[in-house]
Specification:
The chain is mostly helical and 387 residues long. It has a domain of 130 residues. The protein contains 14 helices and four strands. The strands form two sheets. Strands 1-4 form a two-stranded antiparallel sheet. The relative contact order is 0.13.
Length: 387
């Protein structure tokens, strides 16, 4: 519930940036944030899970078309694919395998522009610390509820291979296109969006400046579709964890469907208000918010998923201790330990994941082993189907 609320906040930041850029030239972010939050909240309350399920497919089609259109139009505006690659090569360190581009920024955090061109310093070294932080992102997948649900929904084990291929092809395409749009945007609009927060508006700027109004509106709907399809999922999962798992599952097991529904709606409102508070700063960076929520899920549930699948000595006490320690360590590392600098600036998911794993092992060994029945079930699953 905590980390899905953070995820919902990243979606509200997107709504605030989209509406403020489209209607007020980047001003009145907080007002647009509130309007966007109300829109998403009403959509989720009125439609519920049915609206989410029915709309996700159509929204994905809109998003794919929007990405393809902007890549084509942006490439043409930038002078062609060759020109985009050539300009990327001129940025020191940008295309180096072990280098990082270093924009020169002023005291306000804006990149310095001279003679209409953004200035870059000497390339920074891509250190072992940076490599470990980037690779640690992969650990997050083990604890993502929205990702794990896809595995749980598979019809047959043999379909996993095809699913993996489809997923990897889409991920490679979507991420490559996203990065390419950023590269084009820096070339087409070299003097705009000079801060980390503002740079996330480049998709909007490319759309409104390069496309006819009606087509630009369709592309903008792609951004809104992405936001809605994500935010309604996050809000519903977080609210249902309170109403179904805690209220009906623990507090009031005889609760009626109507009581659960009203508690779900109340929880939706509360979560949305908290998400608004998280997203309130106008210079919020969507990537930073998402990375924190990602680390939270990865460290809280990731180690437990792996130990539950591959170590039959895992106990209930070890599972709870691992979840708590992983989730708490994400906050402690991000808000306190990382301030020490140096090696402590590593992405908080990695140390929190390690701590959670250690706690699961120690607590499980210190507590009574699972029942023989559970261990027999574990062994039978690991042995696979019998002829």
């Amino acid at each position: 519930m905590i980390f899905f609320t953070v995820y919902a906040a990243s979606c509200l930041v997107t709504c605030g940036k989209l509406f403020s850029t489209l209607f007020f030239g980047g001003n009145h972010y907080q007002l647009m944030l509130i309007i966007g939050a109300l829109f998403v909240l009403l959509y989720t309350i009125l439609g519920g899970f049915l609206a989410e399920s029915a709309s996700d497919f159509m929204q994905s089609i809109v998003m794919i078309v929007a990405l393809v259109v902007i890549v084509i139009v942006g490439t043409i505006s930038a002078g062609g694919l060759g020109t985009v690659i050539e300009n990327s090569q001129k940025i020191p360190g940008f295309l180096d395998f072990f280098g990082l581009a270093s924009p020169v920024v002023n005291e306000a955090g804006e990149q310095v522009v001279v003679a209409g061109a953004p200035i870059f310093g000497a390339p920074a070294e891509y250190t072992i610390l940076s490599i470990c932080s980037c690779m640690a992102w992969g650990l997050g997948y083990f604890g993502m509820p929205q990702v794990l649900l896809r595995f749980m929904a598979i019809r047959e084990e043999k379909e996993l291979k095809m699913s993996r291929r489809i997923a990897m092809v889409w991920v490679v395409i979507s991420l490559s296109v996203a990065v390419f749009i950023g590269i084009m945007g820096r070339q087409v609009f070299p003097t705009e969006h000079l801060t980390k927060s503002a740079s996330e508006n480049i998709f909007i700027t490319l759309s409104t400046s390069s496309l006819p109004a009606i087509l630009a509106g369709f592309v903008m709907a792609g951004i809104l579709a992405a936001t809605i399809s994500s935010s309604d999922s996050y809000l519903l999962i977080a609210a249902s964890s309170v109403s179904k798992n805690i209220f009906q599952g623990v507090v009031h097991k005889k609760a009626t469907d109507k009581q659960v529904m009203w508690l779900t709606r109340i929880t939706l409102v509360i979560i949305t208000l908290v998400a608004i508070i998280i997203a309130w700063k106008e210079d919020s960076v969507i990537f930073n918010i998402v990375s924190f929520a990602w680390s939270g899920f990865g460290a809280t549930f990731g180690p437990l998923m792996l130990f539950s699948l591959f170590w039959k000595r895992t106990t209930r006490a070890g599972a709870i201790a691992g979840m708590v320690s992983g989730g708490v360590m994400v906050f402690v590392w991000k808000l306190l330990i990382s301030k020490l600098g140096g090696v402590f600036t590593i992405y908080e998911l990695l140390p929190a994941f390690i701590i959670s794993s250690i706690v699961i092992v120690i607590v499980s060994l210190l507590t009574p082993a699972p029942s023989q029945e559970i261990q027999d079930d574990f062994d039978s699953v690991m042995a696979g189907p019998q002829e």
